User: What shape does this take?
Amino acid sequence: MSDTKYLPMFPLNIVVFPNEKLNLHIFEPRYKQLVLDCVENEKTFGIPTYIQGGVGVYGTEVEILNIEKKYDNGEMDIRTRGLHIFKIRNFDKMAPGRLYAGGEVEMLQNGTEEDIVTKVKIRELLEQLYETLGLGNLYLELPEDFTSYDIGHQLGLNLEQEYALLQLDSEADRQELILLHLQHIMPLLLETEKLKERVRLNGHFKNLTPPNF
Assistant: This one.
């Protein structure tokens, strides 16, 4: 039997991954109400991805870690953390008696078994990616036991690709998506770097060895 619950909803045009830390500035009246309700009742809320002009079926349940700051006009800065991925079964533009949306969701099972060989390949390409971008410190900070969710926002994926990653219920499948993406973008990135170098050298005196013919 599937695990379902009713969640307050805060649609955003982003993808939130499990365990991701997300800081939000709350300024709309409906979401001020949502945050205060969740804090008062010690409840979580859902962030479904707003994509292609509508609220997507998939999203992530998040918990409020703390309200960092309250402003005189009622606005707030909050710290949150992603918990579990869900699929919306029924969506209400306004939850009963509230200003904000709500929805009945099915909490999805998430397979964590990974492919070690794929992970090694991903790590090698990540090192190459970060070094090429001049972000070697990101690679050094990468934990040995990193998951797809840990690097999901660092790969240059667009919103649709991140949303596709969110829907995969197997870590091995997520790794495969990430590996294919890295294998696709790395040659393009390296060619761009070569082009930048050629542009920089344009006009310089070149010490070229003539071909022997």
